[in-house]
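Quick illustration, no need to memorize.
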Amino acid sequence: MKRLLFVAESVTLAHFFRPFCVARRLDPARFEVHFAARESHRAAVEGAGFRFHPITGISSASFLESLRTGSPPFDLSTLRAFAREDAELVARVRPAAMVSDFRLSLPVASERERIPLYTITNVHWAPWARLPRWPLPDLSGFPLGEVLPVPLARAIFLAARPIVFSKFLAPLNRLRREHGQEAFPSLGAAYTHGDFQLLDDVPGLIGTRTPVPPSAYFCGPLIEDALAGLPTRWPEGWDLSQPPRKGRTYVSMGSSGSLAALEAVIRAIESLGWEALMATATRFDSGELPGFIRSAPILPGALCAQVSDVVITNGGSAPCYQALSQGKPILALPSNMDQFLFSEALEKAGLAVVLRADRAQAEEIARGICQARDCLSAAREFGTRIRELQARNIAAEALSAP
């Protein structure tokens, strides 16, 4: 039996759910799964029959605030503490291989102990990805960011980007040098580093500058409601058997989407005469939402997408792939770099409409919802590709290799 150690740096829920779903698709007769995550995930991990190991991490709020203000989310002292914790964990578990989702300190232990490392990541961070441009992230955390014209702000950002990325990378490379390991040449190299990459992506969505390395596996979307332990039935008392009078949208900003844009989203939906389903992710009180919105902290996302005309998301890969797996088009309201990189690729492929979360007004959002409906045919075709990839269970195939 092959012993695997999964390590999730769950600064957003997707960073926990992706490895958790991969682990749940493994054959328990062939794999002994150990899972390291925050204490808050203990019940889910142990409920799945895995050995749980608590680890520390930074809070989601701290991580998102760092991104908003352009400051490194992990300082050197934090990374040193993570590396010590990783070393103790590896010594205790003694795995044959490890699977990491955003645990940036884990390569130190992997390389020192010569344990193969599988990194769950997205193509848009890979050094071999072909990006048309670096997008401009949310400006609200920067001086004058909310009043600068976007073209001027983009020019300033593009000039400053190498410095900002270098600042993010500096603590991590300092840690690696302290352990006698080579520095990462880029932020993308750090985010995708590993002996193998389990790509939470559909091939061809994002182009590549060079051939895809043999270490990279296109797994398709890794999060599925049933595997993640998310609801797969409607909340008690909900009846959605009747189609809406005009239209219906599912709004899911997840654990990392901009809440500042929600007021404009609600006004836009109301102006169209649509109804909405909304997952709050426990990030705000839904008690004062208007009557045309049904809401709950966690909803069966796949079902919500099925019965909606358009899905409104933060532009991240997890909620967008969930919508597309049901053949539904997307209105994306991204704020951080990761969300922009992914959602702009969807827009280029004709699967989504993208608006800036920090600038979009209700009228523009209403137009975006209507425009997104034109993406329906492409979304249905893309959904077929997603289901074919998920049926193959490529991540399990990769982890089964000797």
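The chain has two domains: 2-218, 227-388.
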